[in-house]
Write a structure and sequence with these properties.
The structure holds 2 protein chains of 2 kinds.
Chain A: H1 4-21, H2 30-54, E1 60-71, E2 77-86, H3 88-107, H4 115-134, H5 138-147, H6 149-159, H7 164-190, H8 205-208, E3 228-229, E4 232-233, H9 234-249, H10 258-265, H11 268-293, H12 295-300, H13 302-322, H14 326-347, H15 350-381, H16 397-411, H17 417-435, H18 441-466, H19 475-481, H20 487-505, H21 508-540
Antiparallel strand pairs in A: 1-2, 3-4
Helix pairs in contact in A: 1-2, 1-4, 2-3, 3-4, 3-11, 3-15, 3-21, 4-5, 4-6, 5-7, 6-7, 7-9, 7-10, 9-11, 10-14, 11-14, 11-15, 13-14, 13-18, 14-15, 14-17, 14-18, 15-16, 15-17, 15-20, 15-21, 16-18, 16-20, 17-18, 17-20
Chain B: H1 2-17, H2 22-40, H3 47-64, E1 73-75, E2 80-82, H4 84-104, H5 108-113, H6 117-134, H7 138-159, H8 163-194, H9 202-208, H10 213-230, H11 239-246, H12 249-255, H13 258-273, H14 276-282, H15 290-309, H16 315-335, H17 339-370, H18 381-384, H19 386-400, H20 406-425, H21 428-457, H22 472-489, H23 492-502
Antiparallel strand pairs in B: 1-2
The chains are: A mainly alpha, B mainly alpha.
């Protein structure tokens, strides 16, 4: 059987349709069905991952079929393929997504309102996420990318906190702003790229990555002599538009402001999905699409991209330090951690980009854990102000153990997964100065300061909330409510903690899958980027 | 002798032309039948059913007219034309009118007020709309524009009898009269300088181009004013919100879609006659570069429609402004009037038809069942009408252009067509139009989701429920929604069918 990826995508859609048909009374089957589907997805993803490791080169599990194929007369053909495949870049993220969705499904036991609608949207979102990581046809990618928005909007907006309306529409508007302009660039690329086999225009991303496939006088061609728009190379503009679209998703400074709102208002499982998976789509998009299609612009702007990464690291860390709400603090720490991803990508070294992917997966696991841990106390006392708690370790010692693991992993303690990701991206950033001279060494030094601040806010929070004599805002009432972990909570937290430790000790589990792909990718991006840049500079004289 | 021959040829052409109007005779027959039934029968409950039969039959006859060749048939010496492209427009309009009658026959308010005209005028309205699509001569254009307007006024006034309604009808008539006067004045100038009213006359362009430039500008400007009024595009859009607000949503199922499709058919034909590439060479005023002209109109329409929609508090006013913004998108289809431009325009019109009829049916349902007129009335509606609310979300998502819905496919084709037009002409106005359209899409998210937010995320203060159930709504709206999804995921068959018959 070779259409596992389709199964991965359409399994939740089929389940969603079944849920829709069930009566509302059957409220106790919705969650089990969702969990079963998520378990199946995780197993399939794990199987695919194991299969991929046997031969970690190139694209695997390729599925390709005509989707929309129209003859439009003088205008040529409209070709849109149903083209799925995974490589070392996406397979890890695919596994992460399936796993995070499973955790989120288990964590959804706090959802009491309207379970039918909730789990239907949840499954739809799951399908869209799988699709985004598998699609290699730009049009198909876009469809899945946009398909995530509506379920996410309702998940935040209907099951969220008091300010949920604002947060959900803000999330929607920001993402749509990025993606509408992405659509325009996509159309422009389509009309510039020719499928070398059939001679027709194509949305195939792999063809878009090869400069030879562009028609000579098209706007996105490297060899065009007049591809300037407002006196600026069109390809650079295309890169900027796509970068903004994905930078909103990651999010980076200054496009991040939707994230803290969305996180603070979203219910725990939705926060988990948001931090664990959705942010990674931004990083994935930058590596696969921005850098893949516009390597010369990536090299040209790498200083600025690296700078954005460094500023995100520092800014996110400082705001996290000042946050009084535990969830908001973790949201900002996400921005800071995702900054390392940007920095690693910008370094364009094998270490940096491998580190970026590792950091994405590690952060996916850690943020899932962190948001779930916040959810644990919020569920008990409906409060998550840092100042409202003191000495939590006494009533909840086991809970505190998991918090300590998650915090230490996040602040980059060696032996835990966060350390590997941050260390590799930093090595990449350091090395960049001597290897390709894209980033100054100062960036890496500043980013290291970010780790220091990270340690500061995590340790300080640990000290403020968990140590010392217990003293809670809700006094005696809270003492009764703040019970230690339940069985479900163990079920969620133990695997997460184990994976964190496992990845910290054996990082090669992930590097084995990504390394070949990334080495080839770094090499090609560099070679093509430099060649394109030279050609464009001589032809366009900018 | 010469006169005799001319007359002879006229008669021959006329004789040959009658058979192309079979769908219209059929409609006329059903109209007369309805009139007679209204006069002589007490029980008129089945009148609507009869009209549905008549309109479906006319749709069938129109479908039969699709010919193997793509040639344009000249009817009545070029007064009317018929081609497969025009037949597609006619079919779309027939579909709207048919859906409208089925839906209107379930509206209890219409049942109560006992106005059978509401049903048997529809075939006559359809004749007028069909004529508008087929007009190729300034006289027929003017006559059909007037005829369509007349019935539109009638429907606004008929819709529900109360005061605000009369006001809307009156406003509509006054603005409509102004627009048709402008059109008539433009036509008279054009006639005066070209010596012919036939747009297909070979001498027409040559003579007209010799007129003084300000006269050409004035004449075309005035004619355009008349057209823009019909499609509710800026700056001749201002009647729409007032008319919409005072008209029942049931009537708007018809009025928000059918005249607009006919208006675009007319616009497309008109631009076709001008073979405007040639015209651009004759005229050197940049304003009368059609692409620039249409781009500027589209930009104004998009900006006004979407940004004013943001501040509305009445659902029908909001939908009116949203409709204006949609007009801007459709104008993009006219800009790229290349081979894909036509396809994009026709496909988006189909999308627009599906989305708009579904939207107004649902809005009408909320009006009838829950007396929801203002956005505030929509609060918490999902608790009372969950299925209808979810369907409205799908429709709005399609309006915004989220995949995999038909609105997205339509917008994608429109953007592609405009991009092609931009690459071909390198006219920056087109690029600005594309970017404006993208921004308008984002803004549209905001105003459509004000409604969604009210429905799903806010608590109802007080929701009225009417007893009279309207189950047929789902029989009508569900297929429309399924079509919205189907044509979003698999548009190939429909597009290649349209493509195969028009080119």
């Amino acid at each position: 059987m070779n259409n596992w990826l389709s199964v991965l995508i359409f399994l939740p859609i089929a389940a969603a349709l079944i849920l829709l048909l069930l009566p509302k009374r059957a409220s106790n089957v919705f969650r089990p069905v969702t969990i079963v589907i998520s378990v199946l997805q995780t197993l399939i993803a794990a199987y695919l991952y194991a299969q991929y490791l046997k031969n970690p080169h190139g694209y695997h599990f390729v599925e390709r079929a005509d989707w929309i194929n129209l003859n439009l007369g003088t205008f040529g053909r409209l070709n849109i393929d149903y083209f799925l495949a995974v490589d070392g870049l996406s397979i890890g993220l695919l596994l992460l997504s399936a796993f995070v969705m499973l955790i989120a499904a288990i964590a959804s036991n706090e959802i009491k309102k309207d379970p039918k609608a909730y789990y239907t949207l949840f499954l739809l979102l799951s399908a869209a996420i799988m699709g985004v990581f598998c699609a290699l046809d730009f049009f198909l990618f876009y469809v899945f990318y946009e398909l995530m928005l509506l379920p996410m909007y309702f998940l935040i907006g209907m099951w969220g906190g008091p300010n949920r309306e604002y947060a959900s529409i803000k999330f929607f508007l920001y993402t749509l702003f990025g993606s509408i302009f992405m659509l325009l660039v996509m159309i422009g690329l389509y009309f510039s790229v020719i499928d070398p086999v059939t001679g027709e225009h194509t949305f195939n991303m792999l063809y878009m990555m090869d400069a030879a496939n562009y028609t000579k006088d098209s706007y996105f061609s490297i060899f065009s002599t007049d591809a300037l728009l407002f006196h600026y190379p069109v390809r650079f503009l295309g890169f900027i538009v796509l970068f903004i679209a994905f930078a909103i998703k990651i999010p980076t400074i200054p496009l991040h402001t939707w994230l803290p709102d969305a996180h603070v208002e979203a219910p725990t499982p939705v926060s988990i999905i948001l931090a664990g998976v959705l942010l990674k789509i931004g990083g994935y998009g930058i590596i696969r699409i921005c850098y893949g299609i516009f390597p010369e612009a990536a090299i040209y702007f790498s200083y600025w991209i690296g700078l954005i990464g460094v500023v995100s690291i520092l800014y996110g860390a400082f705001i996290a330090l000042a946050s009084t709400d535990l969830k908001r603090m973790i949201a900002y720490s996400s921005i800071s951690h995702m900054g390392f991803v940007i920095l690693g990508i910008a370094s364009l070294t094998s270490e940096g980009v491998n580190g970026a992917i590792f950091q994405m997966i590690s952060h996916g696991v850690l943020s899932t854990m962190l948001f779930y841990l916040v959810g644990v106390i919020y569920l008990r006392v409906q409060d998550r102000e840092i100042a409202a708690f003191r000495g939590l370790a006494q009533p909840m010692p086991r809970y505190t153990l998991f918090v300590v693991i998650a915090f230490f992993a996040s602040l980059g303690l060696p032996g835990l997964s966060g350390f590997i990701g941050e260390a590799f991206t930093l090595i990449g950033a350091f090395k960049s100065a001597s290897v390709n001279a894209l980033l100054p060494r100062g960036f890496a030094i500043l980013a290291s300061v970010g780790i220091l601040i990270g340690a500061a806010y995590f340790l300080w929070t640990l000290q403020r909330m968990f140590f010392g004599a217990p003293r809670f805002k809700g006094a005696q009432e809270w003492h009764l409510k703040l019970k230690d972990l339940t069985a479900t909570e163990y079920l969620v937290l133990i695997p997460l903690a184990l994976i964190t430790i496992l990845l910290g000790i054996f990082p090669s589990i992930l590097f084995d899958a990504s390394n070949n792909t990334i080495n080839a990718w770094v090499h090609e991006t560099w070679i093509h980027g430099i060649a394109n840049l030279k050609s464009m500079q001589s032809l366009l004289k900018f | 002798m010469e006169l005799y021959q001319t007359l002879q040829s006229l008669v021959t052409s006329n004789n040959a032309s009658w058979k192309f109007l079979i769908p219209e005779y059929n409609l006329l027959f059903f109209f007369l039948l309805g009139l007679l039934i209204d006069l002589f029968f007490k029980n008129k409950k089945w009148l609507a059913g009869l009209m549905i039969v008549g309109i479906s039959f006319s749709g069938f006859l129109t479908f039969q007219q699709i010919s193997a060749s793509i040639e344009i048939q000249q009817l009545f010496n070029g007064m009317l034309i018929l081609s497969n492209k025009i037949i597609v427009f006619k079919l779309l309009i027939t579909l709207v009118v048919g859906l409208f009658i089925i839906f209107a026959s379930t509206d209890y308010r219409i049942k109560k007020q006992n106005t059978p005209e509401y049903f048997y005028l529809a075939p006559l309205f359809l004749i007028a709309l069909n004529m508008l699509c087929m007009s190729a001569h300034m006289l027929t254009i003017y006559l059909s524009v007037e005829m369509v307007s007349l019935f539109s006024y009638g429907y606004v006034a008929l819709s529900i009898k109360d005061k605000s309604n009369a006001e809307s009808g009156m406003k509509y008539i006054l603005f409509g009269l102004l627009a048709s006067d402008l059109l008539l004045y433009g036509i008279s100038l054009m006639y005066g300088f070209s010596g012919t009213l036939s747009l297909q006359d070979p001498n027409f362009l040559a003579w007209f181009a010799k007129a003084p430039m300000p006269i050409i500008a004035l004449s075309i400007g005035l004619i355009m004013a008349g057209f823009l009024f019909k499609i509710a595009a800026a700056p001749f859009h201002f009647y729409a919100p007032d008319v919409f607000q005072g008209t029942s949503a049931t009537t708007l199922v018809l009025l928000s879609v059918a005249p607009k499709i006919a208006g675009y058919a007319l616009f497309a034909n008109f631009l076709g006659f001008f073979s405007f590439k040639i015209f651009n060479q004759v005229l050197f005023w940049p304003m009368y570069n059609w692409e620039t002209f249409l781009s500027i109109t589209a930009i104004m329409t998009l900006v006004i429609g979407s940004f004013v929609a943001l501040s509305q508090t009445n659902i029908k006013r909001l939908m009116a402004y949203a409709g204006i913004a949609q007009s801007g998108f459709l104008l993009m289809g006219l800009i790229g009037y290349t081979s894909i431009g036509v396809i994009a325009l026709l496909f988006y019109l189909l999308a627009y038809l599906l989305m708009n009829t579904a939207a107004f049916m649902l809005i009408s349902y909320f009006e009838q069942q829950h007396e929801a007129y203002d956005l505030a009335d929509y609060k918490g509606l999902v608790r009372k009408a969950p299925l209808a609310s979810i369907l409205l979300v799908v429709v709005f998502a399609s309006f915004i252009g989220l995949p995999p819905l038909v609105g997205f496919t339509g917008k994608f084709l429109l953007f592609s067509a405009s991009y092609q037009a931009y690459v071909a002409s390198a006219n920056p106005a087109i690029l600005i139009t594309i970017i404006t359209a993208a921004v308008a899409s984002i803004v549209s998210l905001f105003y459509y989701f004000i409604i969604i937010r009210n429905m799903f995320m806010q608590e109802a203060t007080w929701v009225k429920v009417n007893k009279e159930e309207q189950n047929i709504l789902y029989l009508l709206v569900l297929p429309l929604i399924l079509a919205i999804i189907y044509f979003g995921i698999l548009p190939s068959n429909m597009i290649s069918y349209i493509q195969s018959i028009i080119a």
